[in-house]
Amino acid sequence: MEDRLKLCWATGKNDLIGNAYGYKVHSDTLMKYVTEIADIDPDAKDAVIIASSDLYTKPMENKTNWLFTMSEGTTLPEKLANNIKKADHLLVPSTWAKEILGQYYDAGNIFIVHHGVEKEFKYTKRKFPVSRPFRFLWVGAPNERKGWGEIASVWKFFERQPGLELYLKTTGLKNEYESKGNVILDSRNLSQNELIKLYHSAHCFLFPTRAEGFGLVLAEAMATGLPCIATDYSGVTDFFDDTVGYPLKYTMGDIKATYADGTIDTTQAAFPDVTEMAAIMAWIYKNYKKALMKGKKASEFIHKEFSWNRSAQTLVNIIGQNQ
């Protein structure tokens, strides 16, 4: 029987943990699936470190450092670029992330390991609602990069239209559920099952992001069969196009990136076309059966190509082949 690969799973140490909740979720979930095919051993010579580039400041000594990181802008500040150069290898979640970090690191030594979607995000058959409003759903952190401003702008086209509602699921506000007119703001901490039920309750998913290392929220929404509208830019383009969703055109512009170590940088990101977004939302509402067909195709694609099992196997194969 072939020996299983041994890996030191370093993420979680105080000096290595990422600066966002997403990094922790990524680390915990990926490790769960890696454990099925490899051994987690603190003495292993290969160390997997899932961390943002601002907090990867001290490589693990006497180990081969596999830094799993990403970027949400088109550039990195010099200090962060120097940080990633301390790693022996880079792992990234998308083709776009590889292109961005390849400006600062040997692209031949950057390996793509996509995120996956848990199998619990099952497809559900939807129909046009009769006894309740047609629900547009947005899920994300309350910051500009996630398209908060674009959502506020686009809803002005629909806020007085009967039979529609906008459900905003976010975090870090007041940890409450608030309904005002046809807008629902939910900042409660939801379990995975509760989040899946929320996806199943919606009729269309909105994701006007300005940049994503991968875009897991979008992939999860697609997995449930939701017709999805998203910016045609950054990490999402590895799994999202007009065959499985409704991509938005965009223009590039400056944004401020603030890092946990205090670094503030001006970089570029995509600003999606709000007018086009409103037109697509209206089309989906009027042509819902056609939109659902595309949603079903998206679900089949995500469940086939983007599982955490596949992500774990890809990571193990890459490290095993480069020892």
Short key terms for the protein model shown above:
Rossmann fold; 323 residues; 22% strand; alpha/beta
Uncertain runs with pLDDT below 50, 5 residues or more? 13-19
**CATH architecture call of the largest domain:** 3-Layer(aba) Sandwich
Structural class assignment: alpha/beta
CA(first)-CA(last) distance: 20 Å
Secondary-structure element order, as H and E? EHEEEHEHEEHEEEHEHEEEEHHH
**What spatial order of strands do you see in the largest sheet?**
9-10-8-7-11-12-13
CATH classification, class level of the largest domain: Alpha Beta
Radius of gyration, whole Å: 20 Å
Instruction: Round the mean pLDDT to the nearest integer and report it.
Output: 93
Strand content: 15-25%
CATH superfamily of the largest domain: Glycogen Phosphorylase B
Number of helices: 9
Name the shape in a single word: globular
Task: Write structural notes for this entry.
This protein is of the alpha/beta class and 323 residues long. 30% of the residues lie in helices and 22% in strands. It has helices spanning 21-34, 78-84, 95-101, 148-154, 192-201, 216-223, 274-286, 288-305, 308-321, and strands spanning 6-9, 39-40, 46-50, 64-68, 89-92, 110-112, 134-139, 164-169, 177-180, 183-186, 204-207, 228-231, 246-248, 250-258, 264-272. The strands form 3 sheets. It has a 7-stranded mixed sheet with strand order 9-10-8-7-11-12-13, sandwiched between helices. Helix 7 packs across helix 8 (288-305). The radius of gyration is 20 Å and the shape is globular.
